[in-house]
Amino acid sequence: MDNIYKVVVCGADNTGKASSVERLVSEDFTQNYNPILGVEFHPIYFFHTDKGPIQFNAWDCAGSDEWKRLGKGYSIKAD
What we know:
- By secondary structure, this protein is α+β, with helices and mostly antiparallel strands.
- The protein has helices spanning 17-26, 65-68, 71-74; strands at 3-9, 39-46, 54-61.
- Helices cover 23% and strands 29% of the residues.
- A hairpin with a 7-residue loop joins strand 2 (39-46) and strand 3 (54-61).
- The longest helix is centred in the N-terminal third of the chain and has 10 residues, at 17-26.
């Protein structure tokens, strides 16, 4: 697949970042709050686009203060 993009999802804690990514990956939505520790990686595929198949590699970053300093490192080579 030629169209692969790195997308970093970051923001304050408890704002729905992980739930939004989960919705794109599995079409499920949960209201349970399970904080991310560090980062979670999720490939998201879009097969029918004008550019052909596209893959977003979503890096879901933790929003709590103790993990925020790592966010800049995760965004290296992000699209």
